[in-house]
């Protein structure tokens, strides 16, 4: 414990001598670069529209990607600064740079605000106001989640899924292509499955002893039911899109790896390893194989005629 002004005691770890390199590495970790993998969603709509092969389409999509990475890192810094006290009581999250005292809470807040301010300005380089508005909307929803919505059961699931949906929609705004209802439904249901799977894995791994307040409200059977509902609805929607909208063999064949991805994710969640979805994408070989096969089939179907 350290003593602050007027004798007020703070639970922030006492500062230890750290070199500039150690603090810089800690700050980089606090920005959670592995989470940037989620921002790959901005490539989905441009890829489906076949515009990634054009210089302008690729440029504007990359601008959207970087803007969302900056915005995400800014909100992660603010989130971890707000949760620092609770994270110190968590067996794993206590190692986060801000909770561990490597990155001061005040510095995290200032850096978070700066990154959030820069993100929409960068998005404006893609032209127009819609992409910056989408980035700003993502920031508002994420901050609302950080300070309020994450404490509201069910609403917290929808809020996080909404952040995924904004990313996917922003990709279409960046290159000015329309998005279909099929695309939005599949992305929405897929986002919900990932978020619910994350909560379910958290519950399996730590019961109600973690830092997430809504875990005491959910039950394993409820989360499993919602996950099954999202999985089933997503499979049906994708099949209808592949078989009815696109009369092409490759789209029909793409159903196989798509279903395998969903089934594999459900299996991993049941094993209690879906707490960090980005870790699954980076390390689970079967999931990587199924995803690569799906991407290949769709790319050939879209770009090779």
Structure description:
This protein is mostly helical. The protein is 68% helix and 1% strand. It is built from 13 helices and two strands; from the N terminus they run E-E-H-H-H-H-H-H-H-H-H-H-H-H-H. The chain has helices at 20-30, 44-49, 55-82, 84-87, 105-123, 130-147, 155-175, 181-206, 220-245, 249-253, 255-270, 277-283, 285-303, and strands at residues 2-3, 9-10. It has a two-stranded antiparallel ribbon with strand order 1-2. Helix 8 runs parallel beside helix 11 (255-270). The protein starts with a strand and ends with a helix. Mean pLDDT is 87; it is low at 1-10.
Keywords:
1% strand; mainly alpha; single chain; disordered N terminus; 305 residues
Using only C-alpha atoms, the radius of gyration works out to: 21 Å
**Unreliable residue stretches:** 1-10
Roughly how much helix do the residues carry, as a percent range?
55-70%
Structural class category: mainly alpha
The major pleated sheet works out as:
2 strands, antiparallel
- DSSP E strands, number: 2
Mean pLDDT, nearest integer?
87
> In percent terms, what proportion of residues is strand?
under 5%
Strand order of the largest sheet: 1-2
Cα shape: globular
Number of helices: 13
Cα-to-Cα separation, first versus last residue? 66 Å
Helix and strand run: EEHHHHHHHHHHHHH
Topology:
Blueprint: E1 2-3, E2 9-10, H1 20-30, H2 44-49, H3 55-82, H4 84-87, H5 105-123, H6 130-147, H7 155-175, H8 181-206, H9 220-245, H10 249-253, H11 255-270, H12 277-283, H13 285-303
